[in-house]
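Hi R.,

Quick one: here's the CoA ester lyase sequence you asked about.
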Amino acid sequence: MPPHGDDAQEAGLMRSMLFVPGDSPRKFEKASEGKADALIIDLEDSVVTEKKEEARGLTLTMLKGRPGRHQLYVRVNALDTGMTLADLAAVMPGRPDGIVLPKSQGGDDVRQVATWLEALEAAAGIAIGTTRIVCVATETASSIFGLGSYKNCSPRLAGLMWGAEDLSASLGATEKASGGVFHSPYRLARDLCLMAAAAAEVAPIDTVYTDIDNLTGLEQETRAARRDGFSAKALIHPKHVDVVNAAFAPTEAERTWAEKVIAAFASNPNSGTLRLDGQMIDKPHLRAAKKILGQP
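And here's the predicted structure, written out as tokens:
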């Protein structure tokens, strides 16, 4: 059986990544009581400019407190703000599991952050290379053209997240969606981000759902994301966590199928193609089965 609930957190799986304002220890404490697989302490959009410095100190305190088994990420400010390095220097002594880089333009941005992280890890006594990087990779029109550059850019890269809010401003759009369905520019960004993540062999992370009280819509969007290949979803409200975790959980039918596929290849280790329940299966089916069961 694949890990679920607290066991999923223990196994390091990521289905739900909940944003928490970097200047709100109260919200961080509340989020820590929930079952999000990762908390993203945010120094970017949720913190006004005048409070950035204070938020850095509060974020470091949150990181050092580590009240639960959640993975802890920090979203720093974008490279074009000139604040990224100061953010990193302030929070790295707290040993975050990873950094979320907003408005990333491509692999060169990852390499720049990775260079800084190497120095800051050394200074903090952290094993070199252990801090992961997740990029929000579709927030500007120009970023779409950099999606193919993430492959092999850095072993630190752990995920690509697509985002619609800032992209809307970059495009000058008046509306992102209607009837709960994204318009075509955003579907394009979503799909290209998914493909870029698959090509780079990192986690594809679905964007936040902003209709806070519409849990049915959230479930539908999350199931569609899982169906298409996303492995996690970013969240902005604690009450979304359980819905998203459940939507990413494999069904009993999927578990049964996956177990049968893995067992078939285990019994025939030298075969590349097998017949199972009247269907031909091959190594891509085996990889899919392992993904369903949370196996490497």
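The first helix runs from residue 6 to 10.

Cheers,
M.
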